Amino acid sequence: MYERDGIFIMEGLDNNDPKRIKTVEELNEYVETVGFLPLFRSHVDGFSLEELTACSAWWSEKEEDPWEWRKIVAGEGKIVYGKFFGQKAGFISKEWFPYFAAYRRDGYDFDTLYELGMASRKSKLLMDVLDADGETPSYLLKEKAGFGKNGEKGYEGAITRLMMETYAVICGFSQKVNKAGEPYGWSVASYCTAEQRFGRDLVRSCYHLSKEEALEKIMEQMHRLYPSADDKAIRKEI
Question: What rounded mean pLDDT belongs to the chain?
């Protein structure tokens, strides 16, 4: 996706291209096959859902709209959704998520990371709410963790950091509800810890690997899928 004269232009396929991903079921199957995939165009050619879908489908609010698929994927929990690639959104299969956790966490659970002074106070405030409450809409998480007009700053950066570190994931989308119990406004993301969503055993199943070994596995998969991509471009994403 790029901007021209204030208009965002998608870099995908023609609507008649038979190779395009057309449904959320096909997206699930594709991610299960390749392991992981950013939502939007990345530094590696072909490594994004944007490049595998019809340009005209985005934000169409129809069945073939990839922007709507992300809500379905997050809610279903068949694959993992969050900001995992260069602080941008994408999908990871349950098979590959433990490798990302081993690489990004380097064997540390969050509490240990914080006790060793390797995690920020802002991250701790968010994790405390998620540990206590589980799935929490973004606006409530922000409020409960003490971010806002007269509180902590940098909420978006803090929650994105937790996703990049694989401690938090997006587990659904929902609208706010007014006093009459009626939903209104845009759908907002809800967050929970990766362990709450997918189980401690699965998330930490590759902790026996060193950070370097986990990265090597991910790099090998990237080179298998995109043999012409150089290491520098790949590392910008993972």
Answer: 94
Instruction: Give the residue among 204, 236, 207 at the shortest CA–CA distance from 219.
Output: 236
Q: How far apart are CA 102 and CA 89, in angstroms?
A: 19
Query: 74: burial class by Cβ within 10 Å (0-12, 13-18, 19+)?
Result: buried
Q: How many other C-beta atoms are found inside a 10 Å radius of the C-beta of residue 97?
A: 26
Say what the pTM is. Answer: 0.94
Residue ranges per domain, the chain? 1-95, 105-209
List Cβ neighbours of 201 (8 Å cut-off, separation of 6 or more).
Answer: none
CA dihedral 149, 150, 156, 157 (to 10 degrees): 140
Q: Six-digit token pair at 14?
A: 């023609």
Contact (CB, 8 A) for 174 and 137: yes
pLDDT tens, residue by residue, 24-53: 999 999 999 999 999 999 999 999 999 999
Residues 6 or more apart in contact with residue 97 via CB below 8 angstroms: 80, 166, 194, 198, 202, 203
> What element of type H or E holds 69?
helix 66-76
- 105-209 folds as Arc Repressor Mutant, subunit A (1.10.10)
Residue 1 has pLDDT above 70, yes or no: no
Identify the helix (H) or strand (E) that includes residue 201. Answer: helix 200-203
The neighbouring-strand residues paired with 54 are: 13
31 touches 93 (CB < 8 A): yes
DSSP for residue 215 = H
Handedness of CA 161, 201, 36, 172 (dihedral sign): negative
